[in-house]
Amino acid sequence: MTAANPPSVVFLCQRVPWPPDRGDRITTWHFLQHLLQRGAEVRIGCFQEEDRDREGVDFLASRCREIVAPRLSRRRAKLTSLRGLVTGEALTLPFFRHHRLTAAVRRWHHERPPDLVYVYSSSMAQYAMTSTAPARVMQFAELDSDKWRQYAAVSGPLGRWIYGREARRLLDFEAGVARTFSRSLVVSEVEKQLFMQRIPGVVPEVLPNGVDVEHFASAGDAARHAHTAVFTGVMDYEPNIDGVCWFVAECWPELRRRFPDARLLVVGSKPVPKVLALAQQPGVEVTGRVPTTPPFFDRAAVAIAPLRLARGVQNKVLEAMSMGLPVVSTPQAAQGLGTVPTGTLTIAGDAATTIAGVAELFADAGRARQVGLAAAAWVRREWRWERMYERFDQMLAGLGVPLP
Fold first, then answer.
1. Can you give the pTM of this predicted structure?
2. Which of 63, 113, 168, 335 would you call most buried, defined as having the most Cβ atoms within 10 angstroms of its Cβ?
3. What count of other Cβ atoms lies within 10 Å of the Cβ of residue 114?
4. Given pLDDT bands bounded at 50, 70 and 90, which one contains residue 142?
5. How would you label 68-106 residue by residue, b for 16+ Cβ within 10 Å and e otherwise?
6. Is residue 128 part of a domain?
7. Band of pLDDT at residue 290, cut at 50, 70 and 90
């Protein structure tokens, strides 16, 4: 490829990949930004979910060749998804199916056949199953089908049936994608092992998320409170809802008994009523959407990641560690990090160990800062985005898509 003839990329993801304010947007924005900086000509297909997404579309339209982003009405899409009960397919697929995106991808292939089709989230792979692009990369991150399997395991009879069906049907589709695309990507070695168990015969590559260490950098301890914990995340996402509600119900009363001035900051957009109700508990503040999260990390002494329904690489953990905070995490939220240096992360598998982990850090501010600084040094060395870009470029070169 030359500057006069840059590589053509079709980039497909569920949400508008700007601003990078939630897990999937963080990943898609950083890899999209990297492709643009390397000179690729990019066409984006995605969905708008809320009014403010219009700003993201306008922002990206000035940087990309074209963006097609129809509005996704979740209420209408849920009704549409019921077609899957008739067709036998996973309900996720008709939920994210839209005629404008289908037509756009077909047109893009006709106008200038892409050198690369990059897809984030298996639900969007349906638009590229018949693509003739020489390189098709499927970024699974983690298997969405296994998320539904986890939901089924903790649901009542109806939920077990619905979620169990979705897990099976979506896994069938994911296996078809993995066997069709040029490369399958996951975010951790744990996900790689699960992937190979669920989809025999396909060996995915591991390409983790990174962290923007320049943005997630502490401004200092002036606002820090020794008995404040922080939880960050989009608060209509079930694993976040489940995790923080469990923590407040099972851990917070005892922590408040031991530390009467203890505070908990629940920071993130779209808090559902169950999360908003947490603010009725002593010491709990639910912020809703905030312009940026670093100031809230700088108010806290400890970050918590009490997720029970998630795996993969959790951005909330990386961001907190980059900010110099010690993190108390469930095994589920931490396992995507692989081997973590001793003394940089507290793993707590139940309420008793979670309480003990937070209490120990609340009680010793000096040790909390020492652990946080060690965590920051490790994350800033091993998890900065530049390392992930290098691995991404090497993979693309192996597929015959060298960037200028």
1. 0.88
2. 335
3. 27
4. confident
5. bbeebeeeebeebbeebeeeebbbbbbbbbbeebeebbe
6. yes
7. very high
Arithmetic mean of pLDDT, 356-362: 98
pLDDT at 83: 84
Burial class from Cβ neighbours inside 10 Å (0-12, 13-18, 19+) for residue 121 reads buried
Q: Return the DSSP state at 2.
A: B
Among the residues of 270-364, which ranges form H helices?
A: 273-276, 294-297, 315-322, 331-334, 351-363
Neighbours of 384 (CB within 10 A): 17
Please list the residues that pair with 347 across neighbouring strands. Answer: 329
Return the CATH number at 327: 3.40.50.2000
42, amino acid identity: V
List the structure tokens of 265.
């900051």
H or E stretch at 15: strand 8-15
| Main-chain dihedrals φ then ψ at residue 120, nearest 5 degrees | -110, 120
Same domain, 188 and 242: no
| Domain count within the chain | 2
Strands 66-68 and 228-232: unpaired
| Cα angle 140, 143, 148; round to 5 | 140
The whole domain housing 74 covers 8-210+385-398
Task: Looking at the structure, tell me whether residues 246 and 374 fall in a common domain.
Answer: yes
Q: Are 307 and 332 in contact (CB under 8 A)?
A: yes
Digit-coded pLDDT (tens) for 89-137: 999 999 999 999 999 999 999 999 999 999 999 999 999 999 999 999 9
Within a domain: 1: no
For residue 69, CA distances in Å to 48, 103, 205, 380 come to: 6, 12, 29, 34
* Residue pointed to by tokens 């589920």: 332
Q: Report the C-alpha gap between 34 and 40 in whole angstroms.
A: 9
DSSP output for 215-253? TS----STT--TTEEEEES-TTSHHHHHHHHHHHHHTHH
Rounded percentage of the chain residues whose pLDDT exceeds 90: 87
pLDDT score, position 4? 60
Average of per-residue pLDDT values in the chain: 95
**pLDDT higher than 70, residue 3:** no
* Chain Cα centroid distance, residue 92: 18
**Residues 237, 200 share a domain:** no
